[in-house]
Amino acid sequence: MILAADYPFLDVLWTMLVFFAWVIWFWMLIVVLSDVFRRGDLSGWGKAGWAVFMIIAPFLGVFVYLIAHGKDMGERRIKDMQAQQAQVDQHIRSVAGDGGANGAASEIAHAKELLDSGAINDAEFQQLKAKALA
Question: What pLDDT is stored for residue 53 in this prediction?
Fold first, then answer.
């Protein structure tokens, strides 16, 4: 049975340091490989070459990529985030429409135009108005 006395405090700290270093290393590897495969300006052979380089010489491959393309990685990430935010904003605008009182007012105005043109009768207008205000 292993007791706490058999595993000194500095060994615990060293084990935690090594564990978190490996976590950071794998995170860097994932970020770099995802950047390689997300790039549109790199051919398939270039992507395969970087991937093989990072598999054969992992530390050297990642550090060389970070040195060569580190600034570009950040710019691509910012551009992707801005594009994603624009898509979310566009989706929200398309789903929300005018929203709130403006949406109800525009629906009532449209129903009034239909009533004035004779396309609907007064009962249908009142029904559309109640539906818009609900």
Answer: 93
Residues 6+ apart with CB under 8 A from 38: 76, 80
Q: Rounded to whole angstroms, how far apart are CA atoms 64 and 54?
A: 10
Residue 123, in any domain of the structure: no
Number of structural domains the chain divides into:
1
Query: Is position 127 within any domain?
Result: no
pLDDT at 37 over 90: yes
Mean of the pLDDT values across residues 35-53?
Answer: 92
Identify the pLDDT of residue 3: 60
Residue 1 maps to a domain: yes
Q: Give the 3-state DSSP-derived string for 36-86, with helices as H, strands as E and coil as C.
A: HHHCCCCCHHHHHHHHHHHHHCHHHHHHHHHHHHHHHHHHHHHHHHHHHHH
- Asked, for residue 83, whether it belongs to a domain, the answer is no
State the pLDDT at residue 20. Answer: 97
